[in-house]
Design a protein that fits this description.
By secondary structure, the protein is α+β, with helices and mostly antiparallel strands. It has a domain of 40 residues. β1 and β2 form a beta hairpin.
């Protein structure tokens, strides 16, 4: 009997994709004796970086307007 998913797949087991109740897709391998082995997904997901928006100052808006007005011509 295979000891893990990779051993099962390497030795001719049948690999299938199954969807769990919460919608995630997992890979399973059925070996020749009828046992099943699940591929573990050990990848860690990164947290999304939070972007903070700062209110524009009057000085920065004037500088921006000056930049675009001089480059338009």
């Amino acid at each position: 009997m295979a000891k893990n998913f990779y051993d099962c797949a390497k030795n001719g087991g049948k690999v299938v994709n199954k969807r769990t109740e919460d919608g995630k897709v997992i890979k399973m391998c059925y070996d020749k004796e009828g046992g099943k082995h699940i591929k573990h997904n050990n990848k860690k997901r990164r947290k999304e970086k939070q972007v903070r928006f700062v209110q524009a100052t009057e000085n920065s808006l004037q500088t921006l307007a000056k930049h675009f007005n001089t480059n338009r011509q």
